[in-house]
Design brief:
homodimer; alpha/beta; four-stranded mixed beta sheet
């Protein structure tokens, strides 16, 4: 089944202990699309500026990603500059230039309307909600958010949470959103806000999947933890979380039926795609994978925690 | 097979968001012994003061732990006071009174000499080495250490590392010992110092097992990650790491033969015992478990990461 994703397509300048790159292709929707494209068809809704050219287009085209929802606006694309010199788990932002993204009004191509899967990447919750409402055929909706929206736009965010089947956020965000330090208690509080499932990403320690209390007669779904592969070298963690989301949701969208086992496999595929993202700068690694390579790493992850 | 453990037996005063306890029974050797006692016979080498009475003795006796190596000295037992008010992952130490522990000279009862398993809990590496040398029949030796010894007693510690089959330390310690930030690189550097296996404990995120490069013709043992159970309430994390070590090494010591699969199960049993330790203050939970309860939780942990 096709996934439509709305979010940022951007340029990133990144410095890590492994080196430096100027103006790589980046943005949450970019990482998500590339990762999900190894599992299913992906359609993007975003806005870019005049600096988005043939080279950037080619990256999406090579992965068969539908770009008809990427609007070209006058001006420059969203630009982010950051570094991870002290701590690879924590980006330090130097510059955020919203540019054309500041006036982003998502426009949904008619050909996207039949998407049954919708991913709302980290953007203004008001826009997330608008896109969700404009796509009533989406039967499974997942989304992301960040500290900025939790802190300063909570009422709008709470409206979006009611619409979500799966919320994917990190440790700090779930604790901030719930106002609770204990992970299990924080997860329970966030699930009470609406999403039926919650994925908490722990960076180099993997991710945990929590489900809302099962409805009467329904089989309770267990909490599940996927490991992250201990990596020999983290070249650039930018986009790892969005790649996780792409692997997770892309795998789910490709299943004929979504069961408890699909969720578990999806958590592992999310971890797999997150680990690949860190191996090279920007989207470099995410552009050149093969499904075979992905499935090999899936097996490696399985071995990593498997008891006979 | 019996395990001999050398380390501290102490009194702890602890404050956590869940409450406060004055002078609970504590110490690394105490937690280790209690946890390991559910798997095999345990013998302790330690020193206590005149404040160690019938009530404390009864805790060891109830678990069938051999106390003939616990020396009674004039003065008070090791005392630690700490709190976890801001961060349950990080103890803040208020008081450390070494008392009789300051002059600890481990004395090994003759009846302990045939122990084939030896655990060197976190004490002065000079003493760890002395005990190891005095127990030549120990065919498998595991140990722990802490930042203080890594920082200020590194030469003595390096001598001990050469003697170890398994070193169990936490994230901060492995990075400090190796002088490397990347976990995999740090693990490799520490394995080059001597231990054939390394367990890195990640607190609420579980633990990772690394093995030194396999010798020629030997089957390579894979890196393995055990999850930690997301706990609804962490009452008191004191002793969780020592309880992990007790579950891990106790399980190994109870196996007729130690295989790659035994190591994997041992990692899970370590996580299981660490999770129990956090559920009540001090050793309260660790005193009253049953093997059935432990095996039930083992299954829960297995389910937590199991793919069909």
């Amino acid at each position: 089944m096709a996934i439509t994703v709305v979010g940022s397509v951007a340029f990133d300048s990144i410095e890590t202990p492994a080196g430096k790159r100027e103006r790589c292709l980046g943005g949450a929707a970019t990482y998500f699309s590339l990762a999900a494209s190894y599992f299913t068809n992906v359609r993007v809704i975003a806005v870019v500026g005049e600096d988005f050219g043939k080279r950037q287009e080619a990256v999406f085209q090579a992965r068969g990603i539908d770009m008809r929802g990427i609007e070209r606006a006058k001006g420059k694309s969203f630009f982010w500059e950051g570094s991870y010199m002290d701590d690879l788990n924590q980006a330090k932002t130097h510059i955020t230039d919203l540019n054309v993204f500041a006036a982003f009004e998502p426009k949904i191509p008619e050909v996207y309307a039949d998407s049954e899967f919708l991913f709302l990447a980290n953007i203004d919750p008001v826009l997330q909600r608008r896109v969700r409402e404009a796509m009533p055929k989406a039967r499974m909706v997942a989304g992301d958010t960040m500290n900025y929206w939790i802190k300063d736009h909570k009422p709008a965010l709470l409206e979006v949470l009611k619409e979500l089947d799966v919320l994917l956020i990190n440790d700090t965000e779930v604790r901030m959103l719930a106002g609770k330090d204990n992970l299990v208690q924080a997860a329970r509080a966030v699930l009470a806000m609406g999403p039926s499932s919650l994925v908490v990403k722990h960076g180099e320690y993997g991710a945990t999947l929590f489900h809302a209390a099962a409805a009467k007669g329904e089989q309770p779904k267990q909490t599940f933890r996927a490991p992250a592969l201990p990596l020999d070298e983290v070249v650039d963690p930018t986009g790892a979380g969005d790649s996780f989301a792409g692997g997770f949701f892309g795998y789910l969208a490709a299943q004929p039926e979504i069961t408890a086992a699909s969720y578990r496999n999806a958590m592992f595929y999310g971890s797999v795609m997150g680990s690949f993202a860190c191996e090279r700068f920007g989207t470099e690694r995410m552009q050149e994978l093969s499904r075979e390579e992905i499935d090999q790493r899936f097996k490696l992850f399985r071995e990593l925690t498997h008891l006979d």
